[in-house]
Design goal:
Blueprint (H helix, E strand, L loop, with lengths): L7 H4 L12 H17 L10 E2 H16 L12 H17 L3 E2 L8 H13 L2
Parallel strand pairs: 1-2
Helix pairs in contact: 2-4, 3-4
């Protein structure tokens, strides 16, 4: 119900994604990593030919594991490892949304069940 003192812009607030919640630094670093990748390939190349979910996840995990192991900066690009991980996940999200993936994930597993079992174990202590 619209109230007399409602502003038109307030009526749609909450119905649209709050884009301001994504930290600008993450977007900037991801865009630099994507720019770096577009020099090797073309921009939005995953929309031209489908990408493998598993290869993209492996690529993302390599950057995350390097970071976890103490390597902050990617040796090839000079950008933070985390910026490459965000860029890879951004590409994967867009590729899934545009149906531009080869879904080569293993069949549905029990990871959630195993994780939940540890949660229950910790609650019993």
């Amino acid at each position: 119900m619209v109230k007399k003192d409602d502003k038109p812009q307030d009526l749609s607030y909450g119905k649209k994604p709050p884009l301001s919640l994504v930290p600008p630094s993450a977007i900037i670093y991801a865009s630099k990593a994507l720019e770096n990748g577009s020099k090797k390939r073309s921009p939005y190349n995953w929309r031209e030919s489908k990408i493998s979910i598993m290869q993209t996840l492996d690529k993302t995990l390599r950057h995350l594991y390097k970071y976890l192991d103490g390597q902050d900066i990617d040796e090839e690009s000079g950008l933070p490892e985390l910026s490459h991980a965000i860029a890879d996940l951004s590409v994967l999200i867009d590729a899934v949304a545009t149906n531009s993936v080869v879904d080569d994930r293993p069949k549905f597993g029990v990871a959630r069940i195993v994780m939940d079992s540890f949660k229950e174990e910790n609650n019993n202590e």
